[in-house]
Design a protein that fits this description.
There is one protein chain. The termini are far apart. It is built from 15 helices and 33 strands. The longest helix has 18 residues. It is globular. Strands 1, 2, 3, 4, 7, 8, 9, 10, 11, 12 and 13 form an eleven-stranded mixed β-sheet that branches. Strands 14, 15, 16, 17, 18, 19, 27, 28 and 31 form a nine-stranded mixed β-sheet that branches. It has a five-stranded mixed β-sheet with strand order 5-6-21-26-20. With about 650 residues, the protein is α+β, with helices and mostly antiparallel strands. A hairpin with a 7-residue loop joins strand 5 and strand 6. Bound molecules: ligand TSX and manganese (II) ion (MN). Manganese (II) ion (MN) binds next to loops.
Length: about 650
């Protein structure tokens, strides 16, 4: 083909590191010559084709194959500092601040699609005009969208080839990906959030398959824009059948760090269904009791429930120890012994900054002030960062995330509510010794939860696996509604996966239900927790945070089969009187209100869940789940 020219190696940096290159690329389109990748493992044929095809499409000025080295990272950072994408935070070691275009601050669900031949493979058969459990785009329309956006979109910029592993490299549960991106912010962030660089390239060269990820921030009309993006043309699309992810127009983490929500959850859940495992939006923690017995728990919560805080809990009860395996995603598979084993596919924390403080999450605070990229937080005149809820109030000048002077009484937020830290997981002082274990940690309990100001007890335990799957399907949580109507509403968020299902939610439920059908498996017990119940006077009934270990203690007792500690109710088992240790709490606990199961509330809850299933899942709802709802209605009716 006449258009195929050669990439030739230029500026071979770092003779000591055989994987380090800067490749210059000819204008039009070209071929990556193995011969020109001096001293390295060549790109595998599949990877070479993938790079060539997309260089021809996007027409970057240069191609840089990332090796993950520190020298390379230094170079990425200096490029970004020069452009104004990052500024140094000299108060801390190797910390940086990125301020995005104010239009590019969050995931955009309305522009996020799964592309399957059949719409029904993505969207369940609910009756509602608008389905909130899956956003489908036809393969033709996706092709059209790609052709309208990507040709020439990287002109004048560098394409970074980012090889990464979700999960410890070589773990039987890990998956590889390669992200092509024109954003150095993405390349540097992927180095924190994933295992990135030369070893992954080597594994691919040795024949491992990878998920193909293509990302561009969009066509830049201003060559010196520190945060190019195209919010009006943003699209994030997934082709699960071919393990492809395509993202255009946004540099924001959830839209651009394609290993996380896109690969580890959307593509991951689809692969997991195919291969018989689970890719879930769950934290993983290890908890050791005063006798030294250790158990692992996975937990799924919607946003604003403090998932990262629970993952890094500082227990208030003496003798307990919590260790963190992960704060966001769990990949879980039953092993040959029938034990459910979980890995955290990530390598870092991409956490919401506001609300993080030494009182709410001291372990996060001890993690995030080294080797961290902050995004959209406020900065202080002494070269530090600031956000809402970071105590104490700053006694230095603050500049908000938009670059304006900020004071506590100015009526604006200092940090964007969705501002983030991006920090290496191994800096967490309570990171679990087994957090990188290739076989994963054994999971004994799964917690679902939500922010429920009324009606839902602090904790209840499901009767069995089927009931537990129903509890996950019926999850709801209080959320701040869209900007137009500011109020708080209780939103459905099944399994905390609503924005992350990679395939039809009805089939997802079938998959969960099928897991117990293989003989010899030790199924985890499933619980539902609610740290957020309020009294009639509007005060939280439970102190939460480190005191939540008292709830986890009850979970451990139930795992041990302690029957005297539980009482049967219409919705599940709740702690019997005195079964939750309340010793040493500052304030008395109104356990009567905290554990009550109000009949009128639950009758309404059953109605709401039924309506949701009809409107959003329809005939794709497994009969087993419909039966669970009927049984719950019967139990509540006979209260
Ligand atoms: O993360 C939270 N957790 C889990 C901690 C392991 N938060 C913060 C949620 C926002 C992300 C909580 N907020 C928790 C909780 O358990 N509980 C609450 C509600 C609450 C807030 C303050 C107090 C009590 C409860 N007490 C005082 O303010 C004194
Ligand atoms: Mn998440």
């Amino acid at each position: 083909m006449a258009k195929l020219l050669n990439i030739y190696s230029r500026g071979y940096v770092g003779a000591r590191n055989k994987f380090q290159h800067i490749l210059a690329v000819d204008r039009v389109a070209f071929r990556v010559c193995r011969r020109n990748l001096e001293g390295t493992a060549a790109l595998s044929p599949k990877l070479q084709t993938f790079v060539e095809k997309n260089v021809a499409l996007c027409q970057p000025e240069k191609v840089h194959i990332c090796d993950g080295s520190e020298a390379e990272n230094d170079k990425l950072i200096s490029v970004m500092v020069k452009l104004g994408t990052l500024e140094p935070l000299p108060k801390y070691k190797n910390c940086w601040l990125a301020l995005t275009d104010p239009r590019d601050v969050a995931r955009v669900e309305s522009r996020t699609y799964m592309s399957t031949d059949n719409k029904r493979d993505t969207v369940p058969a609910g009756s509602a005009a608008k389905n909130t459990l899956g956003n489908w785009i036809s393969p033709d329309d996706l092709n059209k969208a790609v052709q309208e956006r990507f040709p020439g979109c990287m002109k004048g910029r560098t394409m970074y080839v980012v090889p990464f592993s979700m999960g410890p490299i070589g773990s039987p549960l890990a998956k590889l990906g390669v992200e092509l991106t024109d954003s150095p912010y993405v390349a540097a962030s992927m180095r924190i959030m994933t295992r990135m660089g030369a070893p992954v390239l080597q594994a691919i060269q040795n024949g491992s398959d990878f998920v193909k990820c293509l990302h561009s921030v969009g066509r830049s009309t201003e060559p010196n824009n520190p945060w190019p993006c195209e919010p009006d043309r943003t699209i994030i699309a997934h082709k699960a059948a071919t393990n492809e992810i395509i993202s255009y127009g946004s540099g924001y983490g959830g839209n651009s760090l394609l290993g996380k929500k896109c690969l580890a959850l959307r593509i991951g859940s689809t692969i997991a269904k195919r291969e018989g495992w689970l890719a879930e939006h769950m934290l993983i923690l290890g908890i050791t009791n005063p006798k030294g017995v250790k158990k692992y728990i996975a937990a799924a919560f919607p946003s604003a429930c403090g998932k990262t805080n629970l993952a890094m809990l500082t227990p208030s009860l003496p003798g307990y120890k919590v260790e963190c395996v992960g704060d966001d995603i769990a990949w879980m598979k039953f092993d040959s012994q029938g034990r459910l084993r979980a890995i955290n596919p990530e390598n870092g924390f991409f956490g919401v900054a506001p609300g993080t403080s030494y009182s709410t999450n001291p372990n996060a605070m001890k993690t995030i002030f080294e080797n961290t990229v902050f995004t959209n937080v406020a900065k202080t005149s002494d070269g530090g960062v600031y956000w809402e809820g970071m105590e104490p109030n700053p006694n230095v000048q603050v500049t908000d995330w938009r670059g304006q002077p900020w004071t506590p009484d100015c009526g604006r937020n200092a940090a964007h509510p969705n501002s983030r830290f991006c920090s290496p997981a191994n800096q967490c002082p309570i990171i679990d010794p087994a957090w990188e274990s290739p076989e994963g940690v054994p999971i004994d309990a799964i917690l679902f939860g939500g922010r429920r100001p009324q009606g839902v007890p602090l904790i209840y335990e499901s009767f069995d696996w089927k009931h537990g799957v129903f509890v996950g399907a019926a999850m709801r949580s209080e959320a701040t509604a869209a900007a137009e109507h500011k109020g708080k509403v209780i939103m459905h968020d099944p399994f905390a996966m609503r924005p992350f299902f990679g395939y039809n939610f009805g089939n997802y439920l079938d998959h969960w239900l099928s897991l117990e059908k293989t003989p010899g498996r030790k199924m985890p017990k499933i619980f539902h927790v609610n740290w957020f119940r309020k009294s009639d006077q509007g005060k939280f009934l439970w102190p939460g945070f480190g005191e939540n270990v008292r709830v986890l203690e009850w979970v451990l007792n139930r795992l041990d089969g302690n029957e005297s500690m539980a009482e049967k109710t219409a919705i599940g088992y709740i702690p019997s009187d005195g079964a939750i240790n309340l010793d040493g709490l500052d304030e008395p606990i109104d356990t009567k209100q905290l554990f009550s199961v109000p009949k009128d509330f639950w009758l309404n809850e059953v109605e709401q869940i039924g309506k949701y299933f009809d409107e959003q899942v329809g005939s794709d709802l497994p009969n087993t789940i419909a039966e669970q709802l009927h049984q719950l209605r019967d139990r509540v009716n006979s209260m």
